[in-house]
Structure formats: C-alpha cells, structure tokens
C-alpha cells in the first residue's frame, strides 16, 4: 500500500510536471527600465516573502461602464437606480473558468491564494525563489537614489499561455512605488503667500476674505446649518497613513466655529491595512479633512478610513480602500479623498484598474470626490517641467475632481488649483462639449504643452484659501484643494440627506449630471489662472475651465434641480 501510494504520488507529480515544463511562458507585462531615480541594487534573499495581488479578468468591464452611465445620466429611465452588490458582481466577478485557470496554475507551483478584498482579486504570499521560477523572471531590490525608498520589483514577468487570458496583471511586480506622502495633494500654510483684496459679497462677512470658517462657506454656498436626519446617508473620508485627526481638536473647532452644533459631535474610524488614527499626532491634512466634513455636513454620519502601510506600499492602499467600500452591503453615499499622485509615476495597468474600481463604486451609488492637486499645471513632483504634468486620479473619468477658488465677491481661481488634461484617459463624452468650447476660447495659448484628447479636470471647485483649522489646540490657516474637496463632498452629503428624506435616491456618480443640467446650479468662476512649468497656466473662463471646472456649488439651486429629477 505504502509503495503504491508513493508510486501514485510520484506519478501524479510527473503527470503535472510534464505538461507544465512544456507549456511556454509568455511575457505578460514589461517595462524597458525602472522609473527615473530607481536603481537595481542587489538580488533579494530567495526566501524573502513577496505579497503579490493578482487582478483577475473581470467578466464584463465594458458593460459595467455602460451601466454606470445608465444609472448616472439624467433623463435615463434608470437614473439613480444603483446596483446592489450582487448586481455589480455580474459585471465584475471573474468567470469560474478564469478563477480555475489561475488557481490551478498557482497550485501547480505550490502557491495557495487567499481571497482579496473583492472577488476580482487573489492575494498570494510567495518566496522570491518561487516567484522567479513561476513567472520566469528575476525580482531585484531597487533603491530610489533621492528618497532611499527600496522595493523588490521586476522589469518583466511571464505566465503560461493557458493563464494569460484569465489574468489581468500581477501587482506590484513591474509597478514601482509612488511615494504617497511626498506626492500627497499638499496643504499650504496661508501666511506665506496669500493676501486677498477682493470686495465682499453682501451676505458674506468681510472677514471671509482673510479667514474661511464654516459660516463663510455656508454663506457663500447657501449651505444649510440644520442637522441632517438620514442615517443611511454616510460620508467616508480618506486618511492615508499618518494623517491623523484628533477628536479633541474637532471638539474645540466645533465649540469655536459651530456653536450651534454639539461639540461632542464625533466621527468613527475604520482601519485599512493596519492604519491607525493617533489622537495625539494630529496632522494638518487629517484635521482639515475631518473638521470640514463633520463641521460642514451637519449631523451626517462620517467615517474616517485610515489606510496604513501593511500592504506592499504606494497605490495598494488606494486599491484596498476602494475595494473595501465596493464590497460593503451599503457603501458610503459620499467618499472624499484629498491625496493624489503625479500621473506620470503611475503605471497604466494599475491606473486603469483603480479607475474602473471607482466606476464600480459609482455604480453602487457613491459620489466620489478627489482634490485636483496644489501645483497649477505641474504635478508637484519637482524637476524639469517641459510640458504640463497631470495629477492622478484626476484623469480618471469616473471621479469628480475638485479645484480651488479664493475670495468671495466674486470668487476667482486660486493660483495653486491643479488642472489639466490626462495622458492616460481620453476625454469622456459627458465632457466633450465643455472641452471643445474651452479650447476654442483658449486659441493657441499653451499649444503643444498639454494633451488635447485627454480627460480634463477639475470638474468643479470650492473655496480653498485660508481655512481656519484647529491643530493641537491652535487655530491655523490652511490652503489647498485639500480644503475645497471636503466642502464639496459635504455639500453633496447635505443634498443626499434631503433627497433621501424625500424618498429619493442619493446622487451617485455626479459628472453626467454636473456637465448637463447641473451646471446651471453652480457659480461659474471666470477669472484667475493656475501658473506652472514657467507659464501662466490655464486662464479661468466663462463655462468650464481647467482651473475651476464648472464652478462652485449653490446648495439651494442644486436642491431645486434635483427634486424634479
Ligand atoms: C495685504 O496687502 C495690503 C495692501 O497691499 C497690505 O497693506 C497688507 O500689509 C498685506 N497683508 C499681508 C498679510 O501681507
Ligand atoms: C501635534 O502634536 C503632536 C505631538 O506633539 C505632533 O506629533 C504633531 O506633529 C503635531 N501636529 C502638527 C501638525 O504640528
Ligand atoms: C494623449 O492622451 C491619449 C488618451 O486620450 C493617450 O492615448 C496618448 O498617449 C496621450 N499622448 C501623450 C503624448 O501622452
């Protein structure tokens, strides 16, 4: 018996081994060189364990995008009829055949996959030696010369022909670290540069020209102060590692600037990838984001998602966060993020996958807001800028990107407001009229410096200069699109509260609405520009422009439009 068993086992191994040995491996992804600054320094120890994620081919990604537009376009019979988790999975889940092909290939290499955040993903932990053999590659330690960041990556990897059609990509293999902290949409301290000389709008206090507080924003955008009532309407706020927000700072902020709200109004915290909100280490970004969501979206349940670094680094945190939200039975109705990256540093496969994940979350009914960045037409990365350099995920057509304005009567573009055109994503249809009319106004200005076929951003804007934020007990002035974005997100959250209270669905993916009927409910911003790369950048103009988008919100006008849609 023992002998027979052994024999059977070795025969089995041989049987499995033989076809594999013959099955040719095909290059699945490659790059000619590591990104600038990275140098291969050494071979990692063969036992070093790599955490890799496998993106499986989704069953119907094109159908999902069609469905997203179907539920997001005013006038469609399915407008704001969002997808349940099960309905979404009909488009996104891999086929049983794909799952089997990939898992049996992994098993034949002795690798066991564990489920990822959604069923589009598998996670594997493999020693370098195994990864090198099964992917016919050689992982190396790469070091970045300036930042000292090191990562185990490869320039190319291969998979068997039988697996290739079922596997989208493996991450992070050829995708190099993008330093989230360095590239985070930066917050600017106001004392350095900004001295506003605008006249005031009658209803907006004169002090708002020097210091933005919640009451300034309420006056500017007609935002209600009455508490929201709907518990199903939730606001999710992103915190990338180490941008903590303090509950005691929030409480003192509310006591000073929202005397009509209980100073005990709190937010909840959910950890992703080991992230922690450290009460004693309040950051500028985290404090700003929490105080201008909890302090603006009065009584809307707000959750702070702290993304840690237990994830192999850089864009993995963004992926893990959006996939966590997609997989929830009731995802948040609004999701706001004030972090981003230079688009030039993000590889195409991960950019596309992440952008499609935002489309999925939009189809579930979430309005997704991102700040455009704080470096005008440049990406804030430093170095030579010979052509305008866009930010990411601003170029993703399935998110709503928020730029910054300053002053009150009228608002003008804030010069830091990032805006431009993606080199990865083409312009979506909802935007094509807006872009062509801007380009004809622009004429030959900046010709050759930007990609006229790209998805353009920002979509909208909000005040972004001289926000009063309580940090470690002291009120500090903070500026940036990081300030504008939570305020636009709060506006949407307050609208959702009214809509849900009236028995209507939340707003979901905003852009098709904003670029059609919605723009009449925004304040068009027509002056100012966003210099960078040795130019004056783009000028703001009547209608959409790549500095302030379609304009800033008017809550009352938006509400009356939406009540009839
Ligand atoms: C702002 O500008 C005015 C007029 O030029 C000047 O008097 C004032 O000192 C400036 N304020 C700051 C803070 O720079
Ligand atoms: C707030 O204080 C903590 C503790 O001293 C410190 O770690 C943190 O950096 C401070 N935050 C800011 C934005 O200065
Ligand atoms: C311009 O954008 C398109 C996508 O709209 C892209 O395919 C093309 O490669 C971009 N061109 C450059 C020079 O980056």
Automatic annotation (TrEMBL):
Pfam families: Peptidase_S8, Pro-kuma_activ. Residues 1-17 form the signal peptide. Its main location: secreted. Ca(2+) binds at residues 524-525, 543, 545. Binds 1 Ca(2+) ion per subunit. One of its GO terms (biological process) is proteolysis. Keywords: Calcium, Glycoprotein, Hydrolase, Metal-binding, Protease, Secreted, Serine protease, Signal, Virulence, Zymogen. It comes from the Eukaryota. SMART domains: Pro-kuma_activ (SM00944). It is an enzyme of class 3 (hydrolase). InterPro entries: Peptidase_S8/S53_dom (IPR000209), Peptidase_S8/S53_dom_sf (IPR036852), S53_propep (IPR015366), Sedolisin_dom (IPR030400), Tripeptidyl-peptidase_I (IPR050819). The active site is at 285 (charge relay system), 289 (charge relay system), 482 (charge relay system). One of its GO terms (molecular function) is serine-type endopeptidase activity. Its cofactor is Ca(2+). It catalyses: Release of an N-terminal tripeptide from a polypeptide. SUPFAM superfamilies: Protease propeptides/inhibitors (SSF54897), Subtilisin-like (SSF52743). Residues 211-565 form the Peptidase S53 domain. The keyword Signal applies. GO terms for cellular component: extracellular region. Secreted tripeptidyl-peptidase which degrades proteins at acidic pHs and is involved in virulence. This is tripeptidyl-peptidase II. It comes from Trametes coccinea (strain BRFM310).
């Amino acid at each position: 018996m023992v002998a027979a068993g052994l024999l059977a086992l070795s025969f089995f191994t041989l049987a499995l081994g033989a076809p594999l040995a013959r099955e040719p491996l095909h290059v699945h992804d490659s790059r000619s060189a590591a990104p600038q600054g990275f140098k291969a320094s050494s071979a990692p120890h063969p036992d070093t364990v790599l955490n890799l994620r496998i993106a499986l081919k989704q069953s119907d990604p094109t159908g999902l995008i069609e469905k997203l537009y179907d539920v997001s376009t005013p006038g469609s019979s399915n407008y704001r009829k969002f997808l349940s988790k099960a309905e979404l999975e009909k488009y996104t889940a891999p086929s049983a055949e794909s799952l089997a092909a990939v898992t049996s290939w992994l098993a034949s290499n002795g690798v066991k996959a564990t489920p990822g955040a959604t069923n589009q993903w598998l996670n594997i932990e493999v020693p370098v030696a195994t990864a090198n053999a099964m992917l016919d590659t050689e992982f190396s330690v790469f070091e970045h010369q300036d930042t000292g960041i090191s990562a185990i990556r490869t320039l190319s990897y291969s998979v068997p022909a039988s697996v290739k059609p079922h596997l989208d990509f493996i991450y992070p293999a050829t995708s190099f670290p993008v330093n989230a902290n360095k590239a985070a949409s930066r917050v600017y301290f106001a004392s350095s540069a900004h001295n506003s000389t605008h006249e005031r709008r009658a209803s907006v206090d004169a002090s708002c020209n020097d210091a933005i507080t919640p009451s300034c924003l309420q006056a500017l955008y007609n935002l209600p102060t009455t508490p929201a009532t709907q518990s199903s309407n939730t606001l999710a706020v992103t915190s990338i590692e180490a941008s903590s927000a303090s509950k005691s700072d929030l409480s003192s902020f509310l006591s000073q600037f929202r005397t009509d709200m209980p100073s005990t109004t709190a937010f909840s915290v959910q950890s992703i990838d080991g992230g922690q909100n450290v009460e004693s280490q309040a950051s500028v970004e985290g404090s700003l984001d929490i105080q201008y969501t909890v302090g603006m979206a009065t009584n809307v349940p707000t959750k702070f998602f702290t993304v840690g670094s237990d994830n192999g680094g850089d864009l993995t945190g963004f992926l893990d966060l959006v996939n966590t939200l997609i997989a929830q039975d009731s995802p948040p109705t609004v999701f706001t993020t004030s972090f981003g990256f230079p688009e030039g540093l993000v590889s195409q496969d991960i950019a596309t996958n992440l952008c499609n994940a935002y489309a999925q979350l939009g189809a579930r009914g979430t309005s997704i807001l991102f700040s455009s960045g704080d470096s005008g037409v440049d990406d804030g990365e430093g170095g030579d800028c010979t052509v305008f350099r866009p930010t990411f995920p601003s170029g993703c057509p399935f998110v709503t990107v928020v730029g910054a304005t300053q002053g009150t009567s009228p608002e003008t573009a804030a010069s830091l407001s990032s805006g431009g055109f993606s080199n990865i994503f083409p312009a979506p249809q909802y935007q094509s009229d807006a872009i062509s009319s801007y380009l004809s106004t622009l004429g030959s200005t900046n010709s050759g410096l930007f990609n006229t076929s790209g998805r353009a951003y920002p979509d909208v804007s909000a005040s972004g200069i001289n926000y009063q934020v309580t940090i470690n007990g002291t009120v500090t002035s903070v500026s940036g699109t990081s300030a504008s974005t939570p305020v636009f997100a709060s506006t949407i959250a307050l609208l959702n509260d009214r809509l849900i209270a009236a028995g209507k669905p939340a707003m979901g993916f905003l852009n098709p609405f904003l670029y059609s009927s919605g723009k009449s409910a925004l304040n068009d911003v027509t002056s100012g520009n966003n210099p960078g790369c040795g130019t004056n950048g783009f000028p703001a103009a009547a209608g959409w422009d790549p500095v302030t988008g379609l304009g800033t919100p008017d809550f009352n006008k938006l509400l009356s439009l939406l009540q009839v849609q």
